[in-house]
Specification:
Blueprint (H helix, E strand, L loop, with lengths): L19 E5 L10 H9 L2 E4 L15 E4 L7 H17 L4 E5 L9 H10 L4 E4 L4 H8 L13 E5 L13 H7 L2 E5 L5 H10 L7 E6 L7 E6 L3 H8 L5 E5 L6 H4 L26
Parallel strand pairs: 1-4, 1-5, 2-3, 2-4, 6-7
Antiparallel strand pairs: 7-10, 8-9, 8-10
Helix pairs in contact: 2-3, 5-6
The structure holds S-adenosyl-L-homocysteine.
S-adenosyl-L-homocysteine binds next to α4, β8 and β10.
């Protein structure tokens, strides 16, 4: 490790000409990149990045061409194919290609489809996982995605399908009844429908819900609400996507674990937001 290169010494993989590395950039905060992502940024000839990737991250690849491949205003499905084929073309030109995607490339990021296309065209690929917003974004809001006293499972769902509708393949009743904690990606547009389905399937109106927008960035906002009031509260707070929505009692832990509010230190306290009637960490 030295000043100009923060990578610890290690046998770092080499990004070869004609290869594509499909890499997660984490949810926003550049510090949440992996060292493999940094290693890739140092070597790339071209970085193709999505809308959710913080541009500051590109400063680690000053030698590379930066291509924005966000889908603002485009038809998502047509555009996706174009992006995949662009990757193929760049690799065939002998470029070292870094495809940088928000969060983890294989979590609701269409990374699987891009990799599939590359393989189909005989382009060698490496996958570099990233911190997904549904885990890391919640952690930045002080919400543990699992907590021993709340959940032994967690369900990640998308609120959109390819057509922009709530996915018809999702059985909301089964999800409501079988999932202790539900983490919803891309849920803002259809939140009224989703909250309604969950309540119809038996989740109480009082069920805690956390909404975290632009998580891990300096613009992060967090709303604590309930299934019954979420629609009005999102409107009142003027929240906009991207947002992660977490449904379940783990949201209550934020009352203790909102670490970002503790910058100036904290008083010791033993709150019991889960109402267990016993202190933290007793057996
Ligand atoms: N591959 C990404 C998810 C891509 S889908 C990942 O693993 O995180 C895009 C959705 O991810 C957004 O609509 C939003 O629901 C969520 N998301 C991504 N980054 C986010 C962020 N910084 N804050 C809140 N939600 C985010």
């Amino acid at each position: 490790m030295n000043d100009s290169d923060p990578r610890p010494s290690f046998d770092w993989p080499v990004l070869k000409p004609g290869w594509v590395w499909l890499c997660g950039a984490g949810p926003g905060d550049p510090g949440l990149l992996t060292l493999h992502a940094l290693n890739a940024l140092k070597q790339a000839d071209v970085v193709i990045y999505d809308a959710l990737v913080q541009e500051a991250i590109l400063e680690w690849a000053p030698q590379a061409e930066h291509i924005y491949a966000g889908k603002r205003g485009g038809k998502p499905s047509a555009k996706q194919r174009d992006i995949s084929l662009r990757l193929v073309d760049l690799a065939r030109e002998g470029k070292r290609v870094l495809r940088l995607k928000g969060g983890d490339p294989f979590v609701f990021g269409r990374g699987g489809e891009e990799a599939q296309t590359l393989v189909q065209y005989g382009i060698p690929v490496r996958i570099i996982p990233g911190i997904s917003a549904g885990i890391g974004g919640l952690a930045y809001a002080g919400i543990p995605v699992t907590h021993r006293d709340v959940n032994q499972s967690v369900t990640f769902v998308t609120g959109h399908d390819q057509s922009g509708q709530t996915p018809s393949s999702l059985d909301w009743k089964a999800i409501a009844q079988g999932s202790q904690v539900i983490v919803i990606y891309m849920g803002m547009k259809h939140i009224a429908r989703i909250a309604g389905e969950l309540m119809r399937a038996g989740r109480p109106e009082s069920e805690p819900v956390g909404v975290v927008t632009t998580a891990t960035t300096s613009e992060q906002q967090v709303l604590e609400t309930t299934l019954g009031t979420i629609v009005d509260d999102i409107a009142a707070a003027g929240l906009e996507p991207p947002a992660i929505i977490c449904v379940g009692r783990s949201v209550l832990m934020r009352q203790v674990l909102d670490w970002q509010s503790q910058a100036d230190g904290i008083e010791p306290r033993n709150l019991d937001p889960l109402g267990r009637g016993r202190p933290a960490e007793s057996a």
